[in-house]
Amino acid sequence: MKARPIKVSRRHISGVFLLNKPLGISSNAALQKVRWLYRAHKAGHTGALDPLASGLLPICLGEATKFSHYLLESTKRYQTTILLGHSTTTGDVEGEILLKKAPTELTEDMILNVLAQFHGQLLQVPPMYSALKKEGRPLYELARKGIEIEREARPIHIEKIELLSFSENSLTLDVTCSKGTYIRVLGEDIAKALGTYGHLTYLHRIQTGHFELIPSYTIEYLESLTEEQRDALLLPAYAPVNYFPKVQVPVGRAEYFSRGMESNIEHGAEEQVLVFDGEKCLGLAEITDRKRLVPKRVLNL
Question: What pLDDT is stored for residue 256 in this prediction?
Fold first, then answer.
């Protein structure tokens, strides 16, 4: 007889866990593992990392998923290594070799001059090996069949690009960039600007928005803890938007706010705010020019 799968009793738990995703598994597989360990009723991640990439993958549990899109839209910071001399079909070590050209002798000044060209606002053509869709089909499905289609260049922003080290055939960089930036494509373009071809051999995310990587927060570490210890590692459900100003809900209006109802509020600015009832966060709201507090995301904690 086949063993029956173990049923997990789900919990309505909310919070954010800053997972250090390992190499070799997809972001969804990592998400499901964290969700299983927390026995969470609901979970989502905030920006996928390829199986060949590692590092910070914030996992939102429960009510925190209401704010996950703010992290999807946020800037990201990576450390990456580009191997020079040949390109691959995927832009990383997983692909087959495409084009070869031995790199010229590199100097620090040469590299810095090239990197300066990739700072600021740029247009970038997305790779075929990506989850972008054409007529409902992910581009990577077409790429695996040898089909290449034209892709429109998209605007990206490179906030910072720093040279950490280099050798005769590789560069290691620290890159802070906007949502939608493909580091694989950036690596290929930098290699071309250096007069050669290249692909990524290492990609490690160290920051998402205002969250920074905690190296010890691995799946193995979570597995070693008791449920109580795991729960203690969670950031509050509102952590993804903790940078918004905080206001107290008008007296006697907490229940109304939780029902999605507007209130009058004596507050100066016209802005988005986190609304609290004492120390309890009720959700995210907008204050209008008429000093009305309008709920936008209500937390059910």
Answer: 95
